[in-house]
Amino acid sequence: MDVFCSRLPEQISQAELQRLFTGPLNDCGVQDFHIEKFYNKGNAIITILDANAGQIFLNRYGVPRGSPHNQMALMRISYASKFVRLERSNRDPTDLSLQSLQYMANERAKALLVGVATQRSRPNDRQATEFRVSMLQCGSFDYPRDARLRSDAKLLFLAHFTDPRQGTIHFGQKQAIAILGPEGGDQLRLDLPYNDCIDIVLGKRSSSVQCMTLLEQMQLRQSCQR
Questions:
Q1: In this protein, which residues make up the domain named RdRP-like PH (predicted)?
Q2: Cβ distance 6 to 85 under 8 Å?
């Protein structure tokens, strides 16, 4: 299901959109969704995997499609003292966007099942919390510029920063800490608080990629040894 959002400030960021809608969506049972803001426009599209939960969200916060501009929803979401208008989009989500959301949902479910099975089979063993890192890349996910003209457009990861140094990442109770570089030499430390993460996706053994989507810019700390 696609939900069309209007009356948003043109300058609203992706992180602000995520914070604005995550709570109301979760309250309606929506766990797997993606928000795409229109460039230089006060509009956005929320793609929801579970159509039933999406309909609950629309029943609570949305208005019927094509209804008068002054019609109010049962409950309203506001930003910068303005109420956001939500209605079902006149277009269905693409197969690619639904497949992407389904993949993330499956990976999260697998990780949960594996964690429960491991805990039951080895209740006295401590789970591994530190892993080796072979490279760091920071960037964003986006579609090609001609995506709207292509039916097979794929979501791409665009790397804006790459550090080829090896190191470790440690998953603590409140945050993950990655340290790149040789011990005793110049090192780069990254603090990744879980509260700043939209989601964390862990790859399989054959493709051990860890992807952390953040609301805020992460902290980088460079330590130099003389």
A1: 130-208
A2: yes
